[in-house]
UniProtKB/TrEMBL annotation:
Pfam families, per the entry: CxxCxxCC
Organism name: Pseudomonas fluvialis
Lineage: Bacteria, Pseudomonadati, Pseudomonadota, Gammaproteobacteria, Pseudomonadales
Protein name per Swiss-Prot or TrEMBL: Fe-S oxidoreductase
InterPro entries: Puta_zinc/iron-chelating_dom
Length: 131
C-alpha cells in the first residue's frame, strides 16, 4: 500500500500538521490566519484599537466597545483575553484577501508573533500550499 500524501494540513487535526520551517510561510495560504487570534490589552494598544490612557479602565468596558465596533468576537473576563473578529470565511480581520498577507504585521498580536512556538501543537504548522 502506498503512503498517503498529505497536500495540506487539516486545521482541525493537529496530527496532520507539518514541522514548521520558516521557508514554508512564503508558499502557504496563511492557514494559521484562520485560527482564532487571542489578544491581550497590550496587543490592542499596539494595534491602535485601545489608547494607552484606557489601560486603567475595566476590561469589560473596553470589550463591550470593541464588540460593538466589530473588532473582537469574545472577551474572557477571568483571563483578560480578547478574541479578534474573523471574517465570514474565518480569515483574520487583518488578513488581506488577495495577497494573503497580514495588513498589521509590524503591530500584530503576540499570539501571531509567537506562532508556531505556541499554540495547539508547538513547533508544527497547519501548512497548506498556495497552489
Amino acid at each position: 500500500m502506498k503512503p498517503l500524501l498529505i497536500l495540506g494540513a487539516d486545521l482541525d487535526r493537529t496530527e496532520t500538521w507539518i514541522r514548521y520551517e520558516k521557508s514554508m510561510c512564503h508558499s502557504c495560504i496563511s492557514s494559521c490566519c484562520t485560527m482564532p487570534v487571542e489578544a491581550r490589552l497590550s496587543d490592542l494598544i499596539r494595534l491602535g484599537l485601545v489608547d494607552e490612557f484606557e489601560r486603567g479602565e475595566p476590561l469589560k468596558n473596553i470589550a463591550k466597545r470593541l464588540q460593538k465596533d466589530g473588532v473582537i468576537e469574545r472577551f474572557h473576563q477571568k483571563s483578560g483575553i480578547f478574541t479578534l473578529t474573523r471574517m465570514s470565511n474565518n480569515d483574520c480581520l487583518y488578513l488581506d484577501r488577495k495577497t494573503r498577507l497580514c495588513t498589521v504585521y509590524d503591530k500584530r498580536p503576540d499570539t501571531c508573533r509567537n506562532h508556531p512556538r505556541i499554540g495547539p501543537r508547538p513547533g508544527y504548522c497547519a501548512y497548506k500550499p498556495n497552489l
